[in-house]
Specification:
Its main location: membrane. This protein has 10 helices and no strands. It is mainly alpha-helical. It is globular and about 80 Å long.
Length: about 240
């Protein structure tokens, strides 16, 4: 029902735009940035060879390593500790208005000459929230009872998620603002796409590595089997 509703909204709105929105024919069409795929990749290669771009790419490729585990694994570990998945999904609902409002508020601070200042200021808070998430996972079995989890535990989880969204969007909007500011207007689309792709990759590869490391880094104990560590999948199966 959810997908059907928003699919219908999507079809209606895009159809209205197609019929009601007219192109401004008075404007002279801008010259195309590139003529084909080969030219595009040649242009990308020339951009990424610049020392400043290389330094920036290295920054955004490694900047999210410190909180990748907290971002990727916290939800899974809470479910493992007994928090119902549907409850975690419901906790995401209060975050929606916050996610809409935050970019509007943060953009006021990233519109100046140094948008990355917001990125740097938000990073230590996001790192500290990683410790907060670890505390939530450790705390979960302590407060669990037969009826589930107390309301105050969910309140702390929602508050933690809200603070996390503030730090996350502060970094995200700052990076987007910086990319828009430094991109050459003559090749803006190609330039922005390159920087945003590297930025997305900088967030995805640490999360993938963190998820891959969860199993080998988890300490396991075997009940009733002396001398077994259950460190590997085969030992756990035995």
């Amino acid at each position: 029902d959810f997908l059907f509703f928003w699919g219908a909204v999507f079809l209606v709105t895009t159809t209205l735009v197609a019929f009601l929105k007219k192109e401004n024919e008075e404007l002279i069409p801008a010259k195309e940035e590139t003529k084909g795929i080969t030219d595009t990749y040649r242009l990308l290669f020339s951009i990424i060879k610049m020392p400043a771009v290389l330094t920036f790419c290295l920054l955004i490729l490694t900047s999210k390593i410190g909180f990748s585990a907290a971002d990727a694994v916290t939800g899974l570990k809470l479910v493992e500790e007994g928090v119902p998945k549907e409850h975690l999904a419901l906790l995401a609902v209060p975050m929606v208005p916050l996610q809409i409002i935050l970019p509007l508020v943060i953009s006021k601070y990233t519109a100046g000459p140094q948008p990355l200042n917001t990125f740097y200021k938000a990073m230590p808070y996001r790192l500290l929230l990683g410790l907060e998430f670890a505390f939530l996972v450790w705390w979960a079995p302590k407060v669990k009872h037969e009826g589930g989890f107390p309301v105050y535990y969910y309140a702390v989880v929602v508050l933690s998620y809200a603070l996390h969204q503030i730090s996350l969007y502060s970094m995200y909007v700052a990076i987007m603002a910086f990319n828009a500011k430094v991109s050459d207007p003559l090749i803006g689309g190609t330039y922005m796409t390159l920087l945003n792709t590297v930025s997305n990759l900088g967030g995805n590869w640490p999360s993938t590595v963190a998820l891959w490391l969860v199993d080998p880094l988890t300490v396991k104990e075997c009940a009733g089997a002396q001398g077994h560590t259950c460190a590997t999948a085969a030992a756990t199966e035995v």
